[in-house]
Structures are given as C-alpha cells and as structure tokens.
Design brief:
The structure is a single chain. The mean pLDDT is about 90. The chain has a single domain, classed as Rossmann fold (3-Layer(aba) Sandwich), CATH 3.40.50. Helix 5 crosses helix 6. Helix content is about 50%, strand content about 10%. It is built from eight helices and five strands; from the N terminus they run E-H-H-E-H-H-E-H-H-E-H-E-H. It is mostly helical and about 140 residues long. The strands form two sheets. The chain has a three-stranded parallel sheet.
Length: about 140
C-alpha cells in the first residue's frame, strides 16, 4: 500500500479521517501490511508539521523521528523507470510532479490518499483509493 503525505500527516494532526489513517499506520506497525512512499513524503510531512500551529520545535522533531522509526519502505526516484513514469503521469493526468511520484508506485500497490482532487484525476487510470471511502472492515483485515 502506498500512503501519500495527505494520509501520513493525519497520523500527527487530528482532522477528518485521522482515525482511519492511524489504523493504516498501526496495521503497518503490526506487520499486517507494508506501507511504501516515495522519499518525498519525508519532505512533505516535515513541511506540514513545521507549519502547523499545534506543533512546537521539539514536537516536530519527535513526530518526525517517530515517522522515521516506522520503517516505511521509502522509494528513491533515482530509478530511471520511476522517474520517467512520474513525468508521464504528471503530464497526462495534469497533476503535480509531487503527486505523480506517489501515483507512479501504483504498479506495485494501491495508493491511499485523502486528496480528493488527486483521487478524481487518477481514479480511472490507476489503483487509487480515497481515505474517506475506505470501509472499517477493510482496515481490520
């Protein structure tokens, strides 16, 4: 399963569908699923945390360390096939290259996103699921 920054940020910031996002994280921690993301997720989540008003300096450092400790499978786009795929997806789906980096990983796993715009632009061509549409029973498997 691929988790984008819109889902990962919900592990640290209580907002709509945070409970589902945390359940996904906990399934990964328990070894029941494997979560993967492009290494970009570290930068995006780091940016979200440092700019969020509920986080102070030390809180950000602790949250970020817990993210690193989760053992997400972080993918590098130094692999030319992933890089090329992301460029094509960005262009053809009219999404940012950042978002395309997550979508490019859907050949191996489903992308879970809380980004409704990303979902709308990619759902017909890629294995993408909107976090809000995940049913509770899907998270207990």
């Amino acid at each position: 399963m691929v988790a984008d920054a819109s889902v990962v940020a919900k592990w640290y910031i209580a907002e709509e569908d945070s409970r589902k996002a945390v359940q996904i994280r906990d399934l990964h921690s328990a070894g029941k699923i494997e979560l993967t993301s492009p290494i970009l997720v570290l930068f995006e989540v780091g940016n979200i945390l440092t700019r969020h008003p509920s986080f102070a300096g030390q809180d950000v450092a602790s949250a970020f360390q817990s993210l690193l400790d989760l053992g997400l499978k972080l993918r590098s786009f130094a692999e030319s096939s992933l890089l090329e795929k992301a460029f094509l997806i960005s262009r053809d789906s009219r999404i940012t290259f950042y978002d395309a980096a997550y979508v490019a990983l859907t050949a191996d796993a489903r992308l879970i996103t809380a980004d409704k715009d990303l979902y709308a632009k990619t759902k017909k061509s890629f294995d993408v699921q909107l976090l809000s549409q995940i049913k509770p029973e899907e998270l207990t498997a």
